[in-house]
Design a protein that fits this description.
single chain; alpha/beta; Immunoglobulin-like; TIM Barrel; 7-stranded antiparallel sheet; 15 helices; about 25% strand
Length: about 500
Amino acid sequence: MTEAEKTAGEAFPPLSRRFPEAALAPAGNLRITSGGEKASRLSIGCETLDRDYWDFDRGFPVLAELSPGWARIQSGWAKCEKSPGVYDFAWLDHVAEGLLSIGIRPWMCVCFGNPVYYGEGTWIRTCPMTLGPEVSAAWERYLEKLAAHYRGRVDHFEIWNEPDLGWREAQLDGKYLYAEFVKLSSRALRRGNPDAFIIGGSMACGPRNTTRYGGFALADLFFGSGVGEYINAYSCHAYDVFPELVQAPEEEAFRRVLKRHNLEHLPRWQGEGGCPAAWQKDNALSKHPWNEAKQARHLLRNILCDLRGGAEISSYFMLSDFTYRYDDGTLGPCHYGLLVHPDYRKRPSFYAFQSLCRLFAGRIELNDELLFSLHKTDDQRSRITIEESAGIDALRVSIQRFCFVNGGTPLLAWHRPVNPHVPEKMFLNTMLIEGKDAEGFLDPLLLDPVTQTLWRPQKVRCEEKWGASRVRIDDLPVEEYPLFLAPASFFS
């Protein structure tokens, strides 16, 4: 039994036990190799180190077993400049150099707020967004020094974190204050590094409307300020219980906002996404009955929706649990990590993320040249049940489908987007595949990304319909998190 299977435990028994009637034969385990090609569109969160919320050195050995292309870190102005004009980047060098040593590229969220200039009690989120001449000059000096110090090592800089959450609707001369802050910060960073890649936004509202945040109106104000000339990408955060049902229609609306400002080609980075592995009193998706199994399932659902929705980068929040200091001064655990704090044990979500890094090594793209459909089969598994796969029951069955290509090899994934807190009985389905390279699925393997086990479908055949051929695979399971299918050669 592999380490992933042991960790998954009873929450993820073998597919053959979950689906006794599935036509699957064991085919070994996903091979994980260290030092291989990184997943260029995946990022892992290594945030909050500027506040010493967790120990990077404890998490680092395990981090080396993952292969994302990127890691999001935070610069921590308050930690780098504890005396006016005196900069100490040693702690940040340790983090950045550690990541680079294992082939992971850091991208840095530059963190505003420093009690040296605002007084005690104004650190990080409690820091008012007021830029008097002294503070503005100090902030710009810091950014210029930071960018010059990391030139050639860290060139991607994100301007602060969730301004729509912490700063509300602050205005400056009729313009959105954060947009002016981005322009000022961008100029300072590029004085230190003319090649700096600037990421604006970092919006808590994500590419969507909500009752809590500004949504499309805030984005319209932001892009209408002319900030597009100062940034290379836009970042946002998407914490949704049902990412499949929430993101797609509002992403389309968000793209229309970009188009109005001639920014339809501006890359979008998903800077944070995920869920806790246990109930907690506050922060994103808190106060839900989460557990470690649900977290692993949600990770897979969320990241695949990010990539299907057009995010250039999907960053998972985060590597390790941490202890959070709330606004009322109390401390509390935050359970978002792939690793449990304080012993840094691996959760099932660690293996789910590791599997995605293996599957998406290099650069994956959406596959528009291959089509596949899924149809619930009857109890005898002898035919497709029309009543269950079309007509009035189509919404109830509503299986999510994902089709990617990696290095010329097509990858398929699917799941049913159920409420993570309400158990539902899953079922078997028939898959029909047609289009470019469909014949590769005549010899496929199925991957459970949490247990990292491989299975060989037993009911695979080529059939002719309307003068064209397609691959048919019967008795494949549908789960509440994505399972993957690829040609067997992809896993060798």
